[in-house]
Amino acid sequence: MDWKDGYVAEIEYVHGFHSGLGPTALNFVLMMNGIEPVPLHQGFAYCELGCGQGGSLNLLAACHPEGRFHAIDFNPAHIKAARELAHKANRANATFWEADFADLEALPLPEFDFITLHGVYSWVSAEKRRQIVAFIRRKLKPGGVVYTSYNSLPGWAAHAPLRQLLTSHADTQSGPLVERIDRSVEFVAQLRGLDLAYFTANPPSGDFFDAIASLPRNYLAHEFFNRDWTLFYHGDVVNDFAHADLTFAGSARFMDFRDSLRFSAPVLRLLQDITDPVMRETVKDFAVNQPFRPDIFTRGRHRLPEAAHREQLWQSRFALVVPRDACALEVSFPIGRKKLLPELYDPILSALERESHSLEELLQRPDMARFGAAMVVEALIVLRAIEYILPAMVPSPDTLASARLYNFSILERTSSTSEKQFLASPVVRSGIPLSWPELLFLLCEVTGKDEPLAFVWDCMRARDYKLTRDGVVLPSNEENFAELGLMAERFRTAQRPMLRRLGVI
Fold first, then answer.
1. Whole-number pLDDT of residue 419
2. Which of the residues 15, 363, 375, 466 has an alpha carbon 20 to 30 A from that of 473?
3. Residue 312 neighbours by CB distance under 10 Å
4. Using one digit for the tens of pLDDT, what is the confidence trace for 14-58?
5. Over the range 420-435, which residues count as b (16 or more CB within 10 Å of their CB) and which as e?
């Protein structure tokens, strides 16, 4: 294996954006948990440890021009790509450092209001984790906020042997890592076909293997093939972070805000009797067999007085971030499928389709006021949990200009990559995902091309890019062109108005 201190260095990690890392997203979670948000308008300092190719940090820096953003990664290819994007997007408030966690103390870094690490803590050694905690202890301001994610137990208990089997087989092979991963996947597929007792005793692990076998190999390399790969109970991470004077503030996953969407009535009654917060989270993890946790910690951040909490909640704005016709009112939750009340949810979605609204503004509308504040708040939490809406703001001219400059730099390179990309919305201060054809339609929009359908079709044929319908790849040119025509009309009537409302264009 080509490792650097145990971490895969031979293959670059996938591009991506993680909305939960954003200062605005973190602040909203804090507020909903009754904790005072960080005042962003006064300026703030933010650090991401293990930033990969810088997709999240560059976009967040574009959406928050008042902040100073720093990011650290040991992989020089990652840092090179991140710096190039920052340069093209004129992101003077984003600084990228090529460094190992052992070298953090030597970097000339400020103290931070936010420190985030996504996809890091489970994938580094115990010594690196101690260095991370020591860095947080030195560099996090009093009242600062930390986000960390990790593979958790008990959800990984049944699947962990698969990872061991894959990596052990890869260690016996020679050649480039991608080839070794392919051979390991083929080997485990053969074993699965022999009805080994492990697979017959753990049927979900067979389905899990099928799912991971189809994933991009650069994702598998970083997710499964590091030397260090540690599973944690929630209490383990709480104990680790206590050494940096941190306390658990809540989950960054918004679905976790409503236990009624996750647990049966008997489990809810049991949870009411558990007063210890770590035990309570642990029981929750056992109840849903949690395999992954995104946790937020704070250092001495004040709780909001009840009146201030209510005021902030009432002034919170929300925006619809998916086309209205894609908002189904029957949704799957951990407790099963749930039908959302049309008389309540349709007026909310229709209002947010036109423009962002605060809770107070929504409650001034007669079609929502009749339900009362509690039901409207509950509906907004549900809509946020299923990612139909995001917290919003009225953006400043600087934020609008910053986000649009970033977006143009992304659109400029759409012809060189066919990957999905995220564009910056200054309204929700987060990323909006678009497929490659959608990005090409948007490129035609901003550059004034006369025949966008023909342009996108030529780009698709040049790359032999195929569209899908209902998860199935369309094989023929005729089917792809017909589907592209439907996509073009949908972009014109639904997506383009949404992107304008969100300030993307």
1. 80
2. 15
3. 19
4. 557 898 999 999 999 999 999 999 999 989 999 999 998 899 999
5. ebbbbbbbbbbbbebe
